[in-house]
TrEMBL record:
Belongs to the glutamate--cysteine ligase type 2 family. YbdK subfamily. It is an enzyme of class 6 (ligase). ATP-dependent carboxylate-amine ligase which exhibits weak glutamate--cysteine ligase activity. GO terms for molecular function: ATP binding; glutamate-cysteine ligase activity. HAMAP family: Glu_cys_ligase_2 (MF_01609). The keyword Secreted does not apply. It comes from Actinomadura spongiicola. The lineage of its organism: Bacteria, Bacillati, Actinomycetota, Actinomycetes, Streptosporangiales. This is Putative glutamate--cysteine ligase 2.
Amino acid sequence: MEASDVETHARKPGVSIGVEEEFLLVDAESRRCVPRAEQVLAVAGRHRWHESGGGFHGELSVAQVEAATGACGELADLWTQVRYGRASLTKAARACGARPVSAGTPVLDGPPPPITRGERFTAIAALYGDIVADYQACGCHVHVGVPDRETAVAVVNHLRPWLATLLALSVNSPFDHGRVSAYAGRRMTQIVRFPGAGVPPYAASAAEYDERVAALVEAGVLVDEAMTFWLARPSPRWPTVEVRVADAAATADETVLHAALVRGLVRTALTDLTAGREARDVDAQVCAAALWNAARHGMDGPGLDPFTRRAVPAWRLLDDLVAHVRPALADLGDLDAVLALLEGVRREGTGADRQRRAAGRHGPRAVVDMLADQTESGVLITPGADVFTRDPR
């Protein structure tokens, strides 16, 4: 997001929303990841919404690219920009003999691609050594505007118990080095190898939060204060809360669904804070266990309720989340779209479910083709709202 976007987020706390999507680049013939990010980004050029923060960027691996939307106020606008980013990268990748694939981890095994050039990426590779040598995990990051940093930290406290449910719904990474693993969200097992990864600690103030980050930097386990591995955090640059728990979504529909739920949670937290309702300090180990459970099972199995510390069906936890944010979704005009998109996931399964079905029927190469097609089409279902039928070109 660019400097012009800061005022937009400050003016519309709980409304302004933006998404960053990470993609793998696979060779059109071999279907394996290929180091063509520089070429693809050069062809893609400038993002149509660059003035409000949209852009195309490189990632840690030269086999990955990112599309960021600008700041949006309406879910339909976000959907349009997500579709535009995917269409632009698909066209650019095809010109380079590749296709973008939106998945949390690669499907086919292959030699790890090099680290992207640059001082910061070099420092990251030097600090973390082997665990970044083959790190190719892709996520979906959501930014929601908040009034200030102090509020951002308080909002993150409210988000902590819900992160595992957001992950369970978004799982899209069952593959590990070419095999279908026992995990629906294998990406999360890669992230937790990094220091301080997972559900963020409860912080009573922005000062306490900053002290925690500074201590990790001082200990030499983070490159700088802008680098934490927590799955929700105050943005180190903008007046937003950034949620990074979700796997990269196969379709734009699922990206927008996740973003809408995140915005609903942030808006609900802002309402609670205005009413003087602080977040419960839910046990960190229970939150970590719930996160592991979500990565292991996705929506197809038991979930762990951080409030009651009991195993319950994952879909019941999701129903609880929707009930929790329902007033915020209705106020934002997102409720009908969210319910329609959720029904699509209930019918079609999560991204991990669909990958496993395709692998069982046709093999791993067919999974890559399916993911590439879904990345390009962007559509899991067609919601009833006409706003989601806009042409993204």
